[in-house]
Amino acid sequence: MIKRTGRAAGAWFVAAIRGAGLMLCLTLLGMTGASAQTYTFNTITIEGNQRVADGTILTFGEIDPGDTLSTAALNDAVQKIRGTGLFESVQAVPQGRTLLLRVVEYPTISQINVEGNSQLRDAQLLSLVQSEPRRVYNPTQAEADTAAITQAYAQQGRINAVVTPRIIRLPDNRVNLVFEVVESGVTEIERVSFLGNRSYSEGRLRRVLDTKQAGLLRTIISRDTFSPDRIARDRTLLTDFYNSRGYPDFIVQNVDVALTRERDAYLVTFNLREGQQFTFGNVTVTSEIEGVAAADFERAVRVRRGATYSPVPIETDISRIERLALQRGLNFVQVEPRITRNDRDLSLNVQYVLVQGPRIFIERIDVEGNGTTLDRVIRNQFRVVEGDPFNPREIRESARRIRALGFFQNASVEAREGTSPNQVIVDVDVVEGPTGALTFGANYNSDTGAGLIASYSQSNFQGRGQRLSFDVSTAESNRRFGFSFSEPNLLGRDLRFGIDLSYRTTDNENAVYDTETLRLSPSLTFPVSENGRLAVFYAFEYENLTDVNNDADTSQIIIREADVGEVQTHSLGYRYSFDTRRTGLNPNAGVLLRFGQEFGFGDTQFIKTTALAGAEAKVWNEEVTLRATLEGGLLDYQDGSSRVTNRFFLGSRLMRGFEAGGVGPRDDDTDDALGGNAFAVARLEAEFPLGLPSEYGISGGVFVDYGSVWDVGETFGEDVIYNDFTPRAVAGVSIFWTTPIGPLRFNFTEPLDVQDRDESKSFDVTVSTNF
Hints:
Blueprint: H1 6-19, H2 28-32, E1 38-40, E2 43-47, H3 54-61, E3 68-70, H4 71-82, E4 87-95, E5 98-105, E6 108-115, H5 122-126, H6 139-155, E7 162-170, E8 174-182, E9 188-195, H7 202-206, H8 228-243, E10 251-259, E11 265-273, E12 279-287, H9 311-327, E13 333-342, E14 347-356, E15 361-368, H10 375-379, H11 392-404, E16 408-417, E17 423-432, E18 436-445, E19 449-461, E20 466-475, E21 478-487, E22 496-506, E23 514-527, E24 532-546, H12 556-563, E25 567-579, E26 589-602, E27 605-619, E28 624-639, E29 666-667, E30 678-689, E31 698-710, E32 720-721, E33 728-739, E34 742-753, E35 763-767
């Protein structure tokens, strides 16, 4: 026991009592007693309370008159009263048989304000504050509110923001609570780097990440600020990237995040261990289920020996095998992929083993969080219903399809035990996101010039999963109105119904005639294979060729075609597409095939055929993207003849380096572009990085286009030049720029093989597309 004397001992004693939040005025006898002091109070008097009743305070302290209390018990009672958060201070003063409790109540909050903020609005910050007006002020809660506001700024990258809570005293024990904010600049991510990467460059890996370095577009790119959640997602993205490219042992060992000395930027370093790249070895199917032959399921396997290993095709094979088992009436069949390593030749043998899974059924599917989207839209993404056998893989696929709808900010699908051990309940929890867009602005097209545009689109119309859009645009030489509507699950099936309406007019500012066209086309689209879809459609089309300049400067072919007047055509057609760019087994290559025919009847009879074949591959460690496209069309009339309004023209989308109508058949006398009934174009291009930071979204490319349009059809005896297949060739370089308004492409072209009367151009701007 340490004994303190004199003034120093007294000071220590008072400091100890105050540190515990209690100051007891004890008698000299009690202070010098050898044993713990006890009290019995016949009367308890409370002073200083205005809002809280005496009885409530005694209840808080759990004391009553007549109780015998030790010094420790009296201290506990005071701490309980303070612990309610209603009192700024509590003092217990024994006065013989009377206990005096002096309390100072915390004030009531009159108003809560935020001052000094400009980057975040008051409403956004006040929504984080848990303190409330007309409630008792609590310093602990005010500190928690301060931390929440500070965190909101940190999420924006303003980690040096300072938030200070202040109280302004008012009469009647009231205060205003003010959060004073001193906003700092954005602490950006100055550099994202990698250690341990041998197979892929830092530039390629940065394009995988959600996190971006700060760059020229820092004012509109929010991903250049540090976010722990985003870093966690980046770890997953890197792992998926490497695994899908044959690196099963890849791991992100750690992520080092450091602040610069000035605390104005982050340095983020991903420490990687790539491991070796593996290929697929032997791929077999075996069965451990009596009466089920493995040979019946071998045709469902697509993985082949020698291909680069990836878990994606394994998952695809398993889904295909299990789907085939259901088609054969085999329930509860599960496929276990058993993988064995062969480190000698860096291959992985895959054995698909059919096993009998547990007999578990789906009791029900519960959907929550969808305030706008109808339940049936979400349930349509499930291939199972209540009462069906439970398949965990199918549930995961359903979750992926729900997220792919694009209607929700977040969507989770979990299974839990139902009312019995052999039943599960599938819980779907979604968070609605914005699905509509209203746009007013301007656009530019190299063929038609500048124009104004207004558009509205809704991808989840009335929560039914339907798509609705319409747009109005006007340019220097044309005006267009478009409307489209689609129902993706007609009759509850994977059958898309769509209807498209377009109306377009052009004037003769850049031509010697005006045109007016109207097209209405309903369609049905459905899958015919894993990567193939077929659309069938009907179309009504009205076209008119008017205001032709009937002078010597106008082609007689155009004048004769205008004399036909209005033409109304009905047609039936189909379009088939096969696309492996996103669903194929190779993440670095893809193929796109399109083929369609339209059979016209009415005022004219024709067959219109269009086709496209494209391939894309990434080479040189995915630094360079190669694309090759062959596209063509043929218009064949059995009754009537084509007109300048429906023949093919090679615009900049089909062949770069020429003005609209700048290539193809022309009237030899008037030089008017006439278009053609046939066209064919081959496009070869390469896209590659320019060495700029990836967050700028700028890359380069080179291309070569080769093709032609020909065959006017009926010439009415006029001289037409370039009416036969007369090939042109053009080469150029491109600048690709991913901007907030969309991916833009700037083409600088140089003709290689052109004709004398062609109209070429050296520069154009288009919206960038893959093919």
